Please model this.
Amino acid sequence: MMKYIYPFEEGNKDMRQLLGGKGANLAQMTNLGLPVPSGFTISTEACNAFYENHNQLSDDLLDQIHRAVAALSAKVGKTFNSSTAPLLVSVRSGAAISMPGMMDTILNIGLNDQTVIALANLTANERFAYDSYRRLLAMFGNVVYGISEATFDGVIEKRKADQGYQSDLDLTVNDLQEIVSEFKTIYQKELNHEFPQDPTDQLMAAINSVFESWNNHRAQVYRRENDIPSDLGTAVNVQMMVFGNAGEDSGTGVAFTRDPATGKKQLFGEYLLNAQGEDVVAGIRTPQPIETLRSSMPHLYDQFATIAEKLELHYRDMQDLEFTIENGKLYMLQARNGKRTPTAAVKIAVDLVSEKLISKQEAIMRIKPESVQAILYPEFDEQALAENKIVASGLPASPGAATGQIYFTAESAKKAHDDQHRKVILVRQDTSPEDIEGMVVSEAIVTSRGGMTSHAAVVARGMGTPATVGVNGLQVNYQTKTATISGNQLHEGDWLSVDGTHGNLYLGQIKTTDLTVNDDLATLLDWAKDEARLGVYANADTPKDFAQALNFGADGIGLARTEHMFFKPERLLEMRRLIIAEDAEGRKTPLKRLLEMQRGDFYELYKLSKGRSVTIRLLDPPLHEFLPHDEKEIKAVAAQLGIDPDYLAQRVDALKELNPMLGHRGDRLAVTFPDIYQMQIQAIMGAALQLLDEGIIIEPHIMIPLTDSKAEMSWVRDLVVNQIEDLFDAHNAKLEYTVGTMMEMPRACLTADKVAEVSDFFSFGTNDLTQLTFGYSRDDVGSFMPAYIKEGILPADPFQTVDVEGVGALMKMAVDKGRFTKPQLPIGVCGEIGGDPKSIHFFEAIGVTYVSCSPFRVPVARLAAAQAHLSAKRPIEQAAGVKAH
Ligand code: PEP
Ligand code: MG
Model:
């Protein structure tokens, strides 16, 4: 017989896989001697067995549950159905990886028409007993039978309105008894049968439903979003109830051992007196900050603070705690590593290192690389902000600033985002787990109700999405699809600006600022740099981008796409003059002008580099990309150039290609128009020589695009080297330099040993390499890629994450062959996937030397590179011999 049940005394924190996070932690807390209500955990294996058994609890499991309940009864001295000491339990889900609010929970199992009276007698609190009973009826009806919460809420709201009550607390015993009886009628009406009175029947049905909730829609969406495997299953925790709603000396709350928004070291949380857990999370009543417990119940606050500290030291991480006070006695209901904003995650990791609780390596491993992008939170531009008035304020639930168009349902937000590519802001009274798909696509989230631990706040922080919750003066009307903010009526699609750092709202659009790296992130990135083997460079072609990249810690430039320097109007004009020229003579003047401009650009980049490596790629795109295409544009450009429009139209036509990305581009241009590459070499080396005159030594790295063979590379290399040597002679000076190639043609990878003979370095252009390996046009994949991913034909978009099996195999072959010829050959990756964390693990494994990515991804790539190296199986020394140039 398989063991499916573990009393809390038998587990520990290392048994997450089997007991789920909640179960493992309840067991751990029990074993630490903390005040935890007794109970047992039904394992995740039981959940998987449940699914194998056609969603039925097997006889074996039923038998084990009966025995576990009997043991629990004996331990706590309470039994199901007892009229003197009735046993009441909670039934909660708990997976190995936390999925907050996604699965079901039922409290107060064991209450029925008899035990409610027993509970009332026992506690001398009739109101509490009936309040608990009505909660069970509603939760059970919703979770087990799918009766909508609104059906039950409607009864309560009506009664409150009829009696003129403001709050649930105004409901009298008589009201609650009436409500219980109306709830029972709902069962009859909706289900044609009664609410099950037998506690054992209630328990079994509840366990059944919790297992089933593992596969509900929102849990599936959450798992997909968070890469959680769907075969883990959930555990179920059955625990003796303690009551936070037993009177004014009772209460319930949640607290974090550090501020989950900022990471600051201080107890942070909130509680409600005379309430049960869901009242805090649902945001129906506004909770009190935990600080006020210090004055209202000082000894309990001290006991709780001591426990919180003990747990943090024990788990060596910030804890998210749930507690209940029953008649003045504190119980711990949950401890788990707390969800936090990316900002807080970095601060906490760095602080825990200085508190000597974790190592620098552990701090690096704890941060999800993609999440650091969110730390570089945009804020509203100060000047733009000064011109706007705060229209309303709420709680600053999740930092960052965003502007977008408002939508009132998750569905309409998702539709506007997916179909119309809008930047959307979800504005609601409150959110619930059903809204997850709308929240994922939102730039910001705003709610009129709720506190810092409401669903909207917790989820937004987890996703790094700005959020302002509990906004005073905001009313949302779902029927009319309007919201009123401090008297201003807004409709779906109107613009709103949300400052989640300060909790403010503004009407209309506001510009956001550039991003910066805060001190904690800078510290973490420094550590990551020490631990990483891969270098991290930026794809940057302007001083502004380069400065941004340096600010984010880039090692230099891995790819400057020189064609991007030609898009300013005066340059484009010269470029066009160059392209339509019919011979070398006609190209001379525009080339001379372009030379001056490019030399200035390279001079600026080199100056900024302060000795860091700068790799410049020669002209790559098909020339016709620079030309006007329709008649109107052709006329305008002809006028600018002072030429006949018909002549221009004729030149445009002559340059047209059927497959431009496979056509006259890259180093093929060098072969047909050598003077263009010669001009670029003069600009690159001219700038370096100019700096040499100023006493600054630069070693230019020149990169040739689209190479497919040794012969081609050799031809272009000769062109480049001859031009450089001529310049050195003319200048009577010399500089070190390298000439390398992009590896973006499959043929180049297949013959990499030969190509390496004439290349000083390789850099994988994975955009073109992926395009050519799959035969997917990189500019047209949008029409079929989503279907390929949805159908599972591709595991991910190979333009975003390396296709290890195909493109990856070519890359590995090129690395091995290249290094066979030149063991020290530096090899980079400068396509889009250079900044992708998953791909970086693969690049580490095949011995790539460096990656290069857009400036904003530099911090992400740096962390991923450190993590890849720290988790790599192979010894550090093996890959360390090869340095980036
Ligand atoms: C590439 O192909 O991956 C690359 C970096 O070059 P580009 O995107 O400019 O073609
Ligand atoms: Mg390319």
Observations:
- Confidence is low (pLDDT under 50) at residues 874-884.
